[in-house]
Amino acid sequence: MQRNIILVTVIFIFSISIWVGETFLLSYKPDKIYDLEGEQKVVNEKFITAQILSQSLDRVYQVFKQNLNVNRKINKSHEKMPFLNDLTDILHKLNIKDPLNMRPLSNDRRKNKTITSYYIEIECSYEKLGKFITELEKSDRLIEIIEFEIVNGYERVTNTNQLNKLPDQIVKLELATISLNKMKN
Fold first, then answer.
1. Which residues, at least 6 apart from 55, have a Cβ–Cβ distance to it below 8 Å?
2. Which residue ranges in the chain fall short of pLDDT 50?
3. Is 176 helix (H, G, I), strand (E, B) or coil?
4. What pLDDT is attached to residue 9?
5. CA–CA gap between residue 16 and residue 8 (Å, rounded)
6. Where are the domains positioned within the chain?
7. For residues 100 and 88, what is the distance between their CA atoms, to the nearest angstrom?
8. What residues contact residue 148 under an 8 Å CB cut-off, 6+ apart?
């Protein structure tokens, strides 16, 4: 009997100690954990935002660096060749026929930038034209499409043999690359 009383007393004391520990020592812990989880989410979102901004700024820096004229006395013909090579690479990548006409037009040097114009005439579908413009947008160069014309007269559309497919259209584009001139201090 005495052994049962001791066992019940030990169980009672153990139960009370668990209740006291739960009530006074651990009761606020779940709330604190939830608060810390919320803070962690906010900090993670700020970190991800900072990473995205860092990558964007790196991209802006690379575009700026690519389009910066360090030496204003660069030979004009050498300045135009890399861009024309890039254009032909893009055209071949997209399986667009060799350009019907492609030539540099003019150089306009201003105080802080140089604008070099180009004329290109290609024959392609509307889908390939969209992909071509997308590739130009992806380029590290600052490129402006000044003007484009799609030659698609009524006779071109009606002379097609396939009813479901439009023929390739002749597209005339005037593009310009913009190079930033480094100012002398």
1. none
2. 70-78
3. strand
4. 92
5. 12
6. 2-62, 72-181
7. 12
8. 171, 172, 173, 174
Q: How many CA atoms lie within 13 A of 15 on its CB side?
A: 6
Residue from 180, 155, 182 nearest 169 by CA = 155
The reported pTM is 0.55
Closest by CA position to 69, among listed 182, 178, 177: 182
Q: Is 102 exposed, middle or buried (0-12, 13-18, 19+ CB in 10 A)?
A: middle
Q: Is the Cα torsion angle 43, 49, 53, 58 positive or negative in sign?
A: positive
Backbone dihedral angles phi then psi of residue 20, each to the nearest 5 degrees: -65, -45
Q: How far apart are alpha carbons 79 and 71 in whole angstroms? A: 11
For domain 72-181, the CATH class is alpha beta
Q: Are 100 and 122 in contact (CB under 8 A)?
A: yes
- What pLDDT does 35 receive? 86
Six-digit token string for 70: 């360090």
CB 112 within 8 A of CB 181: yes
pLDDT per residue as tens digits for the range 52-93: 888 777 776 766 666 665 444 444 444 557 777 888 888 888
